[in-house]
Specification:
With 228 residues, the chain is α/β, with parallel strands linked by helices. It has helices at 13-25, 36-45, 62-71, 89-98, 110-125, 160-171, 179-186, 195-209; strands at 5-9, 29-33, 50-54, 80-85, 102-106, 135-137, 140-143, 148-151, 154-156, 177-178, 216-219, 223-226. Strands 2-1-3-4-5 form a 5-stranded parallel β-sheet, sandwiched between helices. Strands 6-7-8-9 form a 4-stranded antiparallel β-sheet, with helices on one face.
C-alpha cells in the first residue's frame, strides 16, 4: 500500500523533528521544509496528500502560502492543517476563511495532532454530502428535501436560518466554520445575519435540539463545528 505523503512546514527544527517522528510512526511518508518559498516549490513539484503548515514563517508566511495554494486549481484541494501560536486567533480565522481545514495551537500534543490529521484525511477521502442528501449523525437526522430535522425520532421545529446553519455544520462534521462563513451560509432573502447574531442563532439551535444540541461545539474565538 502506498504511504500517504505529508509535508510539514515549520522554521523550528525541534518541531519539525517532533512532527516528523510521530507521523513516521503512524506510517506516513514525510517531507519537511523550513520556509514558505521552499514549501510552495515542494508542493508544486511533488503534491502531498496533506500539509501541516506553521503560520509564523520567514519570508513568505503561512497565510500567504495558504492563499496561493487555494487560489491555484492544481493545489486548492490539498488539505491544510495550520500550526499556530496562542494569541493568533485573527490569523486562524483568516486561514480558515482562505480554505485551511483545521488548526492546532502550540504547544500541542503529538497525539492530538495525529488525530486531527487523520480526521482531515478521512473527510477528504469521503465524498461530501450533496445538498439534497439526508444526513444522519448520532441521533440527529436532517432531511433537506423536506426541510425537516429529527432528534431522537422527534421532529424539531427550526427557523429557516437555523436550518441553514445546521445543514452547513452537518454536511462537514469536524470542520471548523468561522462566524463569517456561517453568515454567508445563513444569509436569507429577508434576514441579514451578523457575526454577533450567529452566536444567538447557535444558542437557540442548541436549545431546540435538546440532547442533540451537544453535537455543536464552540471553537473559542473562531466559530463552531459539528462533532465528527
Amino acid at each position: 500500500m502506498t504511504k500517504q505523503k505529508i509535508l510539514v512546514v515549520d522554521d523550528e527544527k525541534a518541531i519539525l523533528e517532533l512532527v516528523r517522528y510521530n507521523l513516521l510512526r503512524e506510517g506516513f511518508a514525510v517531507t519537511t521544509v523550513e520556509d514558505g518559498e521552499k514549501a510552495l516549490e515542494s508542493i508544486r513539484a511533488h503534491p502531498p496528500e496533506l500539509i501541516v503548515l506553521d503560520l509564523m514563517l520567514p519570508g513568505i508566511d503561512g497565510l500567504e502560502v495558504c492563499r496561493q495554494l487555494k487560489q491555484d486549481a492544481s493545489t486548492r484541494q490539498i488539505p491544510i492543517v495550520m500550526l499556530t501560536a496562542k494569541g493568533e486567533e485573527s490569523d486562524i480565522v483568516i486561514g480558515l476563511e482562505l480554505g485551511a481545514d483545521d488548526y492546532i495551537p502550540k504547544p500541542f500534543s503529538p497525539r492530538v495532532l495525529i488525530a486531527r490529521i487523520k480526521a482531515v484525511l478521512r473527510r477528504h477521502k469521503s465524498a461530501p454530502a450533496r445538498e439534497s442528501d439526508d444526513i444522519k449523525i448520532g441521533e440527529l437526522v436532517l432531511r433537506p428535501g423536506r426541510a425537516e430535522v429529527l432528534c431522537q425520532d422527534q421532529k424539531v421545529e427550526l427557523t429557516a436560518t437555523e436550518f441553514r446553519i445546521l445543514h452547513l455544520l452537518m454536511r462537514k462534521p469536524g470542520w471548523v466554520f468561522t462566524r463569517s462563513q456561517i453568515v454567508e451560509a445563513a444569509r436569507g432573502e429577508n434576514y441579514y445575519v451578523t457575526d454577533r447574531a450567529v452566536d444567538v442563532q447557535i444558542v437557540g439551535l442548541r436549545h431546540k435540539l435538546g440532547e442533540c444540541g451537544k453535537l455543536i461545539e464552540t471553537v473559542r474565538g473562531i466559530g463552531y463545528r459539528f462533532k465528527d
